[in-house]
Amino acid sequence: MTDIKPWWQSKTLWGALVTIGSAALGLAGLELGDRDREALIELLTSLGAAIGGVIAIFGRITAKSRIG
């Protein structure tokens, strides 16, 4: 990996940002007042974190150049 690419082309970086955003939503404690809605938000937040993690791993495995 000797090629340099812009930061915004990094799949690993975008996967990490998705993970951080999903975690922030969970910490925000979005109050909707309804148990089912809260459970759905928790589910979607967890799903987002899982997808972000998969993207980060995929990005690292398939990376052909380093970011600079």
Question: What would you say this structure looks like, in words?
Answer:
With 68 residues, this protein is mostly helical. It has one domain (11-63). The chain is 68% helix and 6% strand. The chain is built from 2 helices and 2 strands, in the order βααβ. It is elongated, with a radius of gyration of 15 Å.
Treating each run of at least 4 consecutive H or I residues as one helix, how many helices? 2
- Total domains, how many? 1
Give the neighbour order of strands across the main sheet.
Answer: 1-2
Instruction: Write down the overall mean pLDDT.
Output: 75
Main pleated sheet:
2 strands, parallel
- What fraction of the residues are assigned to beta strands by DSSP? 5-15%
Compute the separation of the termini in Å: 12 Å
Supply the helix-strand structural class: mainly alpha
Unreliable spans: none
> How many β-strand runs?
2
Radius of gyration over all CA atoms, rounded: 15 Å
Shape: elongated
Helix content percent band: 55-70%
The secondary-structure element order is: EHHE
Fold blueprint:
Blueprint: E1 4-5, H1 11-28, H2 35-62, E2 66-67
Parallel strand pairs: 1-2
Helix pairs in contact: 1-2
Brief summary:
The protein has 68 residues and is mainly alpha-helical. Helix content is 68%, strand content 6%. It has a two-stranded parallel sheet.
Main features:
68 residues; single chain; mainly alpha; 68% helix; two-stranded parallel ribbon
